[in-house]
């Protein structure tokens, strides 16, 4: 089964400040803020919603098509994707822009100051999903270029490709009508509990009213697992056990990868969500969104240890 993953590709550039921002920001001078923080080096990691989801899918034996844009500095990311067996088939390179980048500075109190440059993400991917689509194809529309987020749900509905709609951090940037159009006809609307509240507020629709327009709603709940809501049925999904929570960043994208893998192998939605929970457990045990690693045998052994079946 082929999987299309649209969203973002980004570099996460992480800096550590050996102090507290509060010691250097004067509250009575905030209107003329001018500060410089000397940091302890910089770490660069691969990220972005599409990259993160595709990365975990590759370890689960899938070779999805990433639909996104990279910039003139994308060569290192391209090499990394190649090592995972992922291709550039759906990735557009924008030669006069940088790849999207998040510049994150964290102080000793875990406060963060982040600057985000969309760069190449400001451009549509331009990828044409073949028609008719591959037999049994699946798709996920995750946060990325706003036009792509508007276009691909319509493409997938026209081609009859089931898709997971994941508006995430782009909820505030989409209008009520745009959100409703993405949700309408999706196989699954997925978000965390806070994002679901934002979606309901933005659209003026209750959860049940949203459910009437899509196949199901999956809500992730962090350490409390997830909730799968289908017509007339709710299923609570337990979180998989973790050795140590190091960094929850990227767990949501890993969950989505596992969910897609479960659906691709013919599991019902609730069982697919258990696959998602297992994948998320790997992500939270590592710092960064593409730092976890597993082989398929180890993954399914962990799945069975947590949920009692393969």
Throw out a few tags for this protein:
13 strands; 4-stranded mixed sheet; 21% strand; alpha/beta; 310 residues; globular; 9 helices; UDP-N-acetylmuramoyl-L-alanine:D-glutamate ligase; 9-stranded mixed sheet
What would you note in describing this structure?
By secondary structure, this protein is an alpha/beta fold. The protein has a domain at 1-23 and 41-125: 3-Layer(aba) Sandwich (UDP-N-acetylmuramoyl-L-alanine:D-glutamate ligase), CATH 3.40.1190. Helices cover 32% and strands 21% of the residues. The protein is built from nine helices and 13 strands. It has helices spanning 49-59, 75-83, 146-159, 176-183, 193-203, 207-211, 251-264, 269-284, 296-307; strands at residues 3-6, 10-16, 42-47, 65-70, 91-93, 100-106, 112-117, 138-141, 163-165, 188-192, 216-220, 226-230, 233-237. A nine-stranded mixed beta sheet has the order 5-4-1-8-9-10-11-12-13, sandwiched between helices. A four-stranded mixed beta sheet has the order 3-2-6-7. A hairpin with a 5-residue loop joins strand 6 (100-106) and strand 7 (112-117). Helix 3 (146-159) packs parallel to helix 4. The longest helix is centred in the last third of the chain and has 16 residues, at 269-284. The radius of gyration is 20 Å and the shape is globular. The two termini are 19 Å apart. The mean pLDDT is 94.
């Amino acid at each position: 089964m082929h999987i299309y993953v649209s969203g973002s590709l980004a570099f996460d550039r992480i800096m550590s400040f050996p102090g507290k921002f509060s010691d250097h920001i004067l509250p009575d001078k905030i209107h003329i803020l001018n500060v410089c923080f000397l940091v302890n080096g910089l770490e660069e990691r691969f990220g972005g919603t599409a990259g993160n989801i595709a990365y975990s899918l590759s370890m689960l034996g899938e070779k999805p098509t990433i639909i996104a844009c990279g910039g003139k500095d994308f060569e290192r990311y391209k090499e990394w994707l190649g090592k995972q067996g992922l291709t550039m088939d759906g990735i557009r390179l924008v030669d006069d822009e940088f790849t999207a980048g998040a510049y994150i500075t964290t102080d000793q109190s875990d406060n963060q100051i982040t600057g985000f440059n969309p760069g190449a993400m400001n451009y549509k991917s331009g990828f044409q999903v073949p028609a008719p689509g591959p037999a049994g194809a699946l798709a996920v529309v995750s946060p990325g270029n706003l036009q792509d987020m508007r276009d691909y749900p319509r493409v997938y509905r026209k081609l009859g490709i089931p898709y997971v709609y994941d508006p995430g951090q782009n909820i505030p940037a989409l209008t009520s009508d745009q959100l409703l159009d993405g949700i309408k006809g999706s196989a699954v609307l997925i978000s965390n509990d806070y994002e679901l509240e934002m979606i309901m507020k933005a659209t003026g629709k209750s959860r049940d009213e949203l459910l009437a327009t899509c196949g199901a709603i999956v809500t992730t709940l962090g350490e409390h697992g997830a909730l799968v809501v289908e017509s007339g049925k709710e299923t609570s999904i337990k979180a998989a056990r973790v050795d140590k929570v190091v960094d929850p960043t990227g767990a949501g994208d890993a969950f989505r990868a596992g969910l897609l893998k479960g659906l691709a192998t013919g599991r019902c939605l609730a069982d697919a969500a258990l696959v998602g929970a297992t994948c998320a457990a790997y992500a939270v045990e590592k710092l960064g969104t593409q730092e976890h690693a597993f082989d398929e045998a180890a993954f399914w052994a962990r799945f069975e240890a947590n949920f009692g079946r393969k």
